[in-house]
Each structure stands twice: as structure tokens, then as C-alpha cells.
Amino acid sequence: MKLHELKPAPGSRRPKTRVGRGIAAGKGKTAGRGTKGQKARSKVRPGFEGGQNPLYLRLGRMRGFKNPFKIVYEVVNVGRLNELPYEGVITPDVLRSFRLVRENGAPVKILGDGDVTRPLHVQAHAFSESARQKILAAGGTVEVIS
């Protein structure tokens, strides 16, 4: 068998339908477009809704993107830590038990709003520079956990 002898399998190819070529052809007269109306007479562009403001204009554009690597911290200020009736090492679990942090498993960041009047020993996932300075100035310790 040679290349010029190849043929498609019987019944695998259908001839192209020629529309609008007389009633006897089966697709004559309206050529499968139905009767009357804009779609019967000419093309209608995709998304056209008859003059009504189309969906893609009603919804507006979505700009920018969402960073899949963004870390969203649960934040606690040092002023709130100072008020805690707790003397041990302050960890995210301790903060959850005192309901200063909501989400389980979310990383905790300590921010520097408020005053520290006693030595605090704090473990958290992140500290702001002002929080770190206030805790250390009061004689406490900061430890970054992962």
C-alpha cells in the first residue's frame, strides 16, 4: 500500500452540507436559520443582547491578581499582652485560649501598640520592630517560631 492509495474508512466522512440550494436539497429556502429576525438575515456578534447592555459590560473588569503566597497574620498588640493574667511563655496557643486570636493555625504577629510594664516572654510567628523593642526594653524575650 502506498500513500496515494490511502482512503478514509467507509462511513467515516460526510459530505459538507450545502445550504440554500433549493427545496429538494433539504436545506433550501431558509437554510436552517428559521424564519425572519436578525439572526436569519445577518450575523450577530458574540455577546450581543439586542441592544441591552451585555453581560460582559454589566459585570465590569476584574483588575489585578491575588497573590497565592500572601501570608495573612492574626495580629495582637503588646498592650493586650501586657493585660494578660498569665505569667508563663506567651505562645499562639495561649493567645487562642484567651481569645485574643481567632483562627486555628493562622500565624500570629505581635504589633507595637500599647505599653509594656512587665517582662513578657513571647513566642510568635512575626514581630513588628516597635513591638520587639518594647518587649525587650521591659526585660522580656521574643522568639520567632515557624
Can you summarize this structure?
The protein is an alpha/beta fold and 146 residues long. Helices cover 21% and strands 14% of the residues. One of its GO terms (molecular function) is rRNA binding.
Task: Describe the overall structure.
By secondary structure, the chain is α/β, with parallel strands linked by helices. It has a domain at 74-144: Ribosomal Protein L15, Chain: K, domain 2. The chain has helices at 38-41, 55-59, 78-83, 92-97, 129-137, and strands at 74-77, 89-90, 108-111, 121-124, 126-127, 141-144. It has a 3-stranded parallel β-sheet with strand order 1-3-5. It is elongated and about 100 Å long. It starts with 37 loop residues before the first helix and ends with a strand. The relative contact order is 0.11. The mean pLDDT is 93.
How would you summarize the topology of this molecule?
Elements: H1 38-41, H2 55-59, E1 74-77, H3 78-83, E2 89-90, H4 92-97, E3 108-111, E4 121-124, E5 126-127, H5 129-137, E6 141-144
Parallel strand pairs: 1-3, 2-4, 3-5, 4-6
Choose one word for the global shape.
Answer: elongated
Distance between the termini: 69 Å
Please name the CATH architecture of the domain at 74-144: Ribosomal Protein L15, Chain: K, domain 2
The total beta strand count reads 6
Strand adjacency order, main sheet? 1-3-5
Q: Kindly report the average pLDDT value.
A: 93
Backbone CA Rg? 36 Å
Total count of helical runs of at least 4 residues: 5
Helix content: 10-25%
What is the C-level CATH assignment of the domain at 74-144? Alpha Beta
Strand content: 5-15%
Largest sheet: 3 strands, parallel
Order of helices and strands: HHEHEHEEEHE
Predict the CATH topology of the domain at 74-144: Ribosomal Protein L15, Chain: K, domain 2
Structural class: alpha/beta
The residue ranges in which pLDDT falls below 50 over 5 or more consecutive positions are none
